[in-house]
Structures are given as C-alpha cells and as structure tokens.
Amino acid sequence: MRFEVVEGVDEWIVRQKDCELGRFADQEKALHAVAERLRGADGTAPVSLSVRYQPPAR
What we know:
Strand order of the largest sheet: 3-2-1-4
Helix content: 10-25%
Order of helices and strands: EEEHE
Radius of gyration: 12 Å
Number of strands: 4
Shape: elongated
Number of helices: 1
C-alpha cells in the first residue's frame, strides 16, 4: 500500500496508486486521512508514504 500526499495550490491531495482519495485544506488533515486508512489496513502488507511539496515561489 503506497500513499502520496501532494501539496497543491491552497490544498493537499491524498493519492493511492495514482487514484485521488481526497483533497484537504491543510497538511495535517491530509495526513490524518492517511492515518485513518492505515488503521484499517492489513498489518502484514508493506506501507509507504511520500509527501511532495510545491517548489518555492521565485
């Protein structure tokens, strides 16, 4: 199971296998959504989480 949290413009997007699971107003809510999914997951399967941030404005 692989999750990705991506910073967008004014929102955070949670994805799993290139499928969007939700959009959140802040990073904390996005990470909380991932944590909720992990609580119900099979504990024997490997899990990864990546966070991608927007590049700084120039």
